Amino acid sequence: MDSLIPIFKERLQDLGGEVIEVGSDPRKTFQEFITRNNLYSLASWDTPFLHGILDSIEGIQVLYPGKSGEELRRIVLNAQAGVTDSFFAVAETGTLALPVTEKKPSLVSLIPELHIAFLEREKILANFEELFQKLWDFGIVEYILVSGPSRTADIEQTLTIGVHGPKRVVVFLT
Amino acid sequence: MSGYRFPIEFRERAQKALKDARLRETLREVMPHFREERVKKISEVPDWEMRRDRASQIKEEVIRKWEEYHRLADEALKKRGIKVFHARDGKEARKIIGKIAKGHHVKKIVKSKSMVSEEIELDSYLEGLGMEVTETDLGEFIIQLAGEKPFHIIAPAVHKKAREISRLFQKKLGLDVGEGIIDITDAARKVLKKRFLEADMGITGSNFVVAETGTLAIVENEGNARMCVAYPRVHVAIVGEEKLLPRFTDLGLFLPLLTISATGQRMTSYVMLLGSPYEKKINNPKERYVIFLDNGRSKILKDRELWPLLKCIRCGACINVCPIYNKIGGYAYGWVYSGPIGAVFNYGILGPERAGELPFASTLCGACDNVCPVKIPITKILLEERRRSSELFRKARGRPGFAERAIFSLWSYLMSHPGLYGLFSTPIRKILRFFGFGSWRRHHLPPFRQWSRERDFPPLSKETFLSHLKKKGE
Questions:
Q1: Using the beta-carbon criterion (under 8 Å), do B249 and A160 form an inter-chain contact?
Q2: Residue B457 per-residue DSSP state
Q3: Do the Cβ atoms of B308 and B318 come closer than 8 Å?
Q4: Contact B230 A145 (CB under 8 A)
Q5: Beta-sheet pairing, A95-100 with A88-90
Q6: What's the gap in Å between the CA of A155 and the closest CA on chain B?
Q7: Closest CA to B150 of B118, B105, B192, B196
Q8: Which chain A residues are Cβ-neighbours of B113 within 8 angstroms?
Q9: Is A36 on the interface with B (CB under 8 A)?
């Protein structure tokens, strides 16, 4: 598992993504990141872990998926960053496997310009074959597999980062 | 081939493309990137050939058990609350989708890349019903504005320069956009965001459909397909009947195989693995439909020689390595698909009467065979289709003339009798050299004029290879 971490970092960075080692205090690392990047308005998945990190951070507004679709859309449109955790990840391709549920809507990792994803290092798998075996074992739900920020080369074959999906993907490795 | 005109006049279209300097410049600049990136990523994968073998086997399994897997897929999709339709042809598919749209009072549609939707000319039909259809892939959006057809399966607007696109946005959208690529992308993002928000229905294709679970797998880089699925309340996926995979875990093999073969990406930015619609929950879509399209695929399925075409996963790797495509681009093929797979598949769907010239658009170099991730024997199929086209041509023109028959009979007799061949080759060669065949030239004498029309006749040497070799040995 440890040998997969450098590969994951390298592959995700290759795609324009960033990896931040969280160290012993995830809240502190996250607070520093928030301050450094002038973030004050976030949309987040509704999970105990994320509540644990985000609810104690000062100076930011965090909105979780609400009671209606319209509310969700409004939340993500106004957020500077979308925060999620990750079910599993793939080292070979720099991929995060994100389930899609009512508490973990796809829009949170799609609309805001910055996508922040918490990832437990033990969850990094070697390749896609392993990932799909794991997803199968856990039972089929809906997933979005995210490999870095959105991109296009449709104009003059020149790579442009940030189209409809996020321009920036930052993985907090716990 | 003279005397018989095929409706897709490949030869004329190819000639036109060859004279188009800008087209050729675009191809020269753009195509090597796809090839190089693919090669780079494959070198990271030590078991690539094994993967191709395995993928080929799995796709053959789907073809062998076609009915069974389709039944499984229908059941699995329905169990997820997805409504399934099977459309025999384009007309039926359009009607089904139109009915779905009308039933949901759809006014605005957003659409992401689907070659199958091009096959059935869906956009114009829905617009005819009074609906607004927006192509949301950036390249497709651009050519939709320009009123053109896609240039390449993976990079539809690659032939358009940024300045040209900026002016197009100005003209068609009334926007004042800078001429930089980032300016254009920003402008497109703003315009499309509004369209996503206001859309009633999203139409996508699907790269794979898993028979055992009813999962739709869709790959993309921009995020527009995710928008088409997550914003509107209705999602329609239109898919070729051949897109099935047996098991969910097969995706672990096929997804990287597809992305590396297509654009040399280890993985695309996004892969959606879609399941049930959200009916009463806050997420969208509330309803999901899958339309499987036949449009001639069942005919190919039953064809003793052509059935491997149904293995195709639409990666475009064959297109990228084809020396023909690299000279003339996609429009010359006259229909939705281009390059090697286009030549054989268009033929399979449209038949020799319409697409009969396409199998001849090849040097039989075999590069396509080498790169195909599912090992479709494209050159073998090209030859078979040529044989069929020749029969058609023969029927139309009647038997070849006496001279042609005589020469070929003589030639095949000589070739099957090596002793005689050796005896005759020297005097025949001396005679031909006497008549000018000793140097490079175009020959204006029939029947050689036909050969010389597209290539110069190489010179006949002074001596045979064998005697040359013997001499060297001394």
A1: no
A2: B
A3: no
A4: no
A5: antiparallel
A6: 6
A7: B118
A8: none
A9: no
Give the amino acid at A88. F
Per-window interface: A 135-174 vs B, CB < 8 A: 135-136, 140-158, 160, 162-166
Q: Which residues 111-140 in chain A show a CB within 8 A of chain B? A: 127-133, 135-136, 140
- In Å, what is the CA distance from A115 to each residue of A45, A164, B54, B89, B288? 12, 12, 36, 42, 27
| B270 to A146: CB separation less than 8 angstroms, yes or no | yes
Q: Is A44 on the interface with B (CB under 8 A)?
A: no
Q: Would you say B184 and B165 are in contact if contact means Cβ atoms under 8 Å apart? A: yes
Token pair in block for residue A112:
């805001």
pLDDT in tens, chain B (474 residues): 445 567 778 888 999 999 988 888 888 888 898 899 999 999 999 999 999 999 999 999 999 999 999 999 999 999 999 999 999 999 999 999 999 999 999 999 999 989 999 999 999 999 999 999 999 999 999 988 998 877 666 677 877 888 999 999 999 999 888 989 999 999 999 999 999 999 999 999 999 999 999 999 999 999 999 999 999 999 999 999 999 999 999 999 999 999 999 999 999 999 999 999 998 888 999 999 999 999 999 999 999 999 999 999 999 999 999 999 999 988 889 888 999 999 999 999 999 888 988 999 899 999 999 999 999 999 999 999 999 988 887 787 777 778 888 988 988 998 899 888 878 878 888 888 887 777 776 666 666 676 677 677 778 887 777 778 888 876
**What type of residue is B352?**
P
Say how far apart CA A148 and CA A134 lie, in whole Å. Answer: 21
Three-state DSSP state, B213: coil
Which residues on chain A are in Cβ contact (under 8 Å) with B274? 142
User: Are the beta carbons of B273 and A151 separated by less than 8 Å?
Assistant: no
Please confirm whether the linkage preceding B277 is cis (ω < 30° from 0). Answer: no
- 10 Å Cβ neighbour count for B13? 18
pTM: 0.91
Residue B235 gets which letter from DSSP?
Answer: E
Among A71, A128, A129, A168, which would you mutate to test the B interface (most chain B Cβ atoms within 10 Å of its Cβ)? A128
- Alpha-carbon distance A95 to A127, whole Å? 9
Q: Mind telling me how many Å the CA of B59 is from chain A's nearest CA?
A: 17
Q: With an 8 Å Cβ cutoff, is B379 touching chain A?
A: no
DSSP symbols for A107-121: GGGTSSSEEEEEE-G
Kindly report the length of chain B: 474
Is the Cβ–Cβ distance between B164 and B177 less than 8 Å? no
2-61 of B, contacting A, C-beta below 8 A: 29-30, 33
Extract the tokens encoding A41.
Answer: 């308005």
Encoded tokens for B10? 């490949």
**What type of residue is B417?**
H
From the number of C-beta atoms within 10 Å of its C-beta (0-12, 13-18, 19+), residue A31 rates as middle
